[in-house]
Design a protein that fits this description.
The protein is mostly helical and 288 residues long. The chain is built from twelve helices and three strands.
């Protein structure tokens, strides 16, 4: 229960046998008789009249969350929730369910459920045991970061279907933007291509330097002696071989734009274009 119905919760750590011994010794009877006596009532009244309360507004807030209450909540969680929370705390690490190949920090119920139930090469790593939908919803609700409107989910169109997305990790690829502040299209792009965009950001400078290096090497060939850069470029993109010509057009696009800031890479990301640029700077695919 995540509510605040208890004013105070404490976990009694002594054994039942110890409690019986204390009870048999007459301790509880003495304590009750004292509280029920005039002297005990006067002492209690004196305490309430004179106790110093630093923050009177505390009585208008929810019940305090004690360490013992947190321990009880943890112990009462469904086993599958505990397992998912462990994997979430180790996201992107080796053998984590929330691995780098797909996890963007954004998720919806059906996506989580499908990934847990489908058979993969790694299915033997995770024994989820028996669980129902309620346990997964509880995991999502307890671990999500609310959107700007305070709601736990936001309806976003993913590949033409509207989904209710949770933020489990606010790891937007924009330098200074939270997932909460992105447009629906920006969120969809993160959800679908997080890994590829991350790679594009990491490889931006290297891809640019490769493209420049390849072009500079070609310019030293005897057949281009005395020709200007524009003349060489026109020749390379007009060889009559569509694949060859496109490889060079992709290289020149990389060179022309230079090394982009991170936010520009995210905004301009296109999966097919990214793959084409990798091919264009792959020495194994060069035809010089």
């Amino acid at each position: 229960d995540n509510g605040g119905r208890r004013y105070y919760f404490i976990n009694v750590k002594i054994s039942e046998g110890d409690l019986i011994k204390i009870s048999d010794s007459g301790f509880f009877e003495k304590a009750w008789n004292y509280v029920d006596s005039d002297r005990g009532k006067e002492a209690l009244l004196h305490y309430f009249k004179n106790v110093k309360i630093d923050d009177p507004n505390i009585f208008q807030r929810r019940a305090p969350i004690t360490d013992d209450l947190l321990q009880l909540r943890e112990q009462s969680k469904h086993p599958v929730q505990k397992k998912l929370e462990f994997h979430l705390s180790n996201k992107w690490q080796y053998q984590s369910f929330f691995d780098w190949t797909w996890y963007s920090g954004l998720i919806y119920f059906d996506d989580l459920n499908d990934r847990m139930t489908k058979q993969t090469d790694y299915s033997t790593k995770w024994n989820w045991g028996s669980y129902g939908d309620d346990a997964l919803y509880k995991f999502l609700e307890d671990n999500c970061i609310p959107w700007n409107n305070g709601e736990n989910t936001r309806q976003i169109e993913i590949n033409g279907t509207r989904r209710r997305l949770y933020i489990l990790s606010d790891v937007s690829l924009y330098k200074d933007k939270s997932y909460k502040d992105l447009t629906p299209k920006q969120i969809e792009k993160h959800f679908l291509h997080y890994n590829e965009i991350s790679r594009a950001i990491r490889e931006e400078k290297a891809i640019y330097e490769k493209a420049v290096e390849i072009f500079n090497k070609v310019k030293t060939y005897k057949q281009f002696k005395g020709q200007t850069d524009p003349e060489i470029r026109r020749f390379l993109i007009n060889q009559g071989d569509p694949k060859h010509d496109k490889l060079w057009m992709d290289k020149f696009r990389i060179i022309n734009r230079g090394v982009r800031p991170t936010d520009h890479i995210v905004d301009q990301f296109d999966l097919d274009e990214f793959k084409a640029e990798q091919d264009a700077t792959d020495y194994n695919k060069l035809n010089l």
